[in-house]
Amino acid sequence: MKSILQHIKGDRAIWAIVTVLAIFSFMPVYSASTNLVYVVGNGSTLGHLVKHVVLLITGFAIIYGTHKIPYRYFSGGSVIMLPVVILLLIFTLAQGKVVEGANASRWIRIPFVGIGFQTSTLAGLVLMVYVARYLAKNKEKVISFKESLSQLWLPVGAILLLVLPANFSTTAMFFSMILLVSYIGGYPLKYIGYILFISLFSLLFFILVVKAFPDAMPNRINTWQSRLESFSKPNGQEGYQVEKAKIAIATGGMIGKGPGKSVQKNFLPQSSSDFIYAIIVEEYGLIGALLVVFIYFLLMFRILITAKKANTIFATLMVVGVGIPIVFQAIVNMAVAVNVLPVTGQTLPLISSGGTSIWMTCFALGMILSVSASKNETEETILDDNPLDILHETV
């Protein structure tokens, strides 16, 4: 054990929190997967659990490998990855079809593995690091709005525009986090106001275009509209999910029915992913529900501590940019389960079943741990890095 701990760097509390969430996830995923087995007819409960465990093991390998990379490499890496993720998003959007009842314009299939990869999650990480790089590089300069439009908001807008048609909630979350990081990084508040106005106008224009040409992008606006209507007045598939989640939560009581004893998992679609928090409340009660909330807020506290202790502005902004969305996504998932927010399709990080969500969360955590493990970095060293030097040093 000592030999293993010697190779683990960074904030030990974050390592412990992530381990607790991962181990805790085994039972809810195993229990909730009965819906996929007996209702959908997909595999076996043990098979779903094994798949989840394998994904978590590879996720921890991603954390370990990433936290060993000096965080300054992520700065130049974001510049290299921007055109890559744009091409991936275009390819993902173009192949849009239905896979197992879900809109496949969010995913591409990883060859030989059979796992769907949600390219928007990778795009979000790259965007956050790129924004942190830009803000750190211009921290001591007077930022020109015109210049920032081409250097910052053009790539941000291009990626968000490619994510928007398939996933509005993810786009909204990315945009909110980018504005938060921009504000923390000293981007002028009046310019943020300009960006908000331009973004709202662009969203309205997008909706009008889709309404005018419904065949170009079928079902997307209707999906958003139906989810909002279901939130205010439950009906249809979304209303059904919300009602079953409410029943699960209402019958959980103080201590719950016990592990594996959920009843609503047999009726609640997406019980092992989007609505897994409702199953947790039913099986572990109010105590279990509050404990999960506490663990996520403890993770956010440690992320903020890491950001505060970072040696450079870039490191601080990067930690906030890739770390806060993890907790924010957890809050959104839990809020949907208790019917505080409309259905969004956001998973519960490190607990819900799924491939891309786990891997990208682990990649973000590895970046945070890389910062907490760093010593004596300087802003000039990081921001003067030529992105091509990363490829050279790696080779």
**Largest sheet report:** 2 strands, antiparallel
Helical content class = 55-70%
Number of helices: 16
Strand order, main sheet: write it out: 1-2
Give a short summary of the structure:
With 395 residues, the protein is mainly α.
Brief descriptors of the model:
mainly alpha; two-stranded antiparallel ribbon; 3% strand
Please explain how this structure is put together.
- The protein is mainly alpha-helical and 395 residues long.
- 70% of the residues lie in helices and 3% in strands.
- It contains 16 helices and four strands.
- The chain has helices spanning 2-6, 12-32, 34-39, 45-67, 72-94, 119-137, 145-163, 168-184, 189-212, 220-232, 236-250, 276-309, 313-337, 356-373, 379-383, 387-394, and strands spanning 98-99, 102-103, 107-109, 116-118.
- The strands form two sheets. The protein has a two-stranded antiparallel ribbon. It has a two-stranded antiparallel ribbon with strand order 3-4.
- Strand 1 (98-99) and strand 2 form a beta hairpin.
- The longest helix is centred in the C-terminal third of the chain and has 34 residues, at 276-309.
- The radius of gyration is 21 Å and the shape is globular.
- The two termini are 32 Å apart.
- Residues 97-104 and 390-395 have low confidence and may be disordered.
